[in-house]
Amino acid sequence: MGHMLLPFRLGLGGPIGSGHQFFPWIHIGDLAGILTHALEANHVHGVLNGVAPSSATNAEFAQTLG
């Protein structure tokens, strides 16, 4: 995220396309925790989904950044 903030604050960022498409995001720390748990827990099998607690469109995400 840090790398994305500067361009947005300089007015160079914005939604991609119509902005109506949903933008999947997750914090790197949360993703690392999911992967660590999956590797260390013997009872975890199959597909794991790592997602944010709420969804945002690309336009909403871009507006939040700046």
Automatic annotation (TrEMBL):
SUPFAM superfamilies: NAD(P)-binding Rossmann-fold domains
Superkingdom to which the source organism belongs: Eukaryota
Protein name: Short chain dehydrogenase/reductase family 39U member 1
Species this protein is from: Homo sapiens (Human)
Taxon lineage: Eukaryota, Metazoa, Chordata, Craniata, Vertebrata
